[in-house]
Amino acid sequence: xxxxxxxxxxxxxxxxxxxxxxxxxxxVFYVAVEGESTEPDYLAFLNHEFGxxxxxxxxxxxxxxGMTPRRVVERALEQRDEVTVGEDRVQxxxxxxxxxxxxxxQAMRYARDNGVRVAFSHPSFDLWLLLHFTGxxxxxxGSSRTVHQKLREFAGFETFDxxxxxxxxxxxxxxxxxxxxxxxxxxxxxxxxCPTGDCTSSGGHANHCDPLRRDPSTDVWMLxxxxxxxxx
Length: 232
Ligand SMILES: [Zn+2]
What we know:
Layout: E1 27-33, H1 38-54, E2 56-61, H2 69-77, E3 90-97, H3 104-113, E4 117-122, H4 126-130, H5 145-151, H6 170-176, H7 180-192, E5 217-218, H8 220-227
Helix pairs in contact: 2-3, 7-8
């Protein structure tokens, strides 16, 4: 979960905040997210960086102080009237973290039963950011402490998560540029290495793969596949 810092000295350097781009994407993605800062900022970054080229527009759905996984799925479903059955032009997504939540398997089942795709990260979305720079191995136990320590070694992220600043704009967004393919490759490798043993990057996590045991892992790359930014 992330909190937006009230007075942000980097506010003027926020290159990916502000008005939505002038173009309208052909495809619309409603992406409900757990956090109120990192994920919405990142989704705005995707709009600006790739939306025009790949003809999509993401609407991040978030709430101040964040949402539980179940609530994230419910928030995505508030847009379900816009989805046409059998078409992928409008997609509903829920993005949430392992953290220390108790309702992960239930929230994932609820999403699947209602046509909401899930981008689940274990321990957190911030793992996806770290994969832009380096690989990760070994269990994280639901804590993002190690992920944050490593992330702060990279330019732009030196102060990430200090003073509640988990924004993903300005220098941080710029630091991600050109690294998405490497991040997806590393994330796919984590699926291949899933402790269940039956999960592959080509087939995804097996049906019987317990999400709580996918440690570490992140499915955010699957959203980028649907957006057309990376290959399956
Ligand atoms: Zn798995």
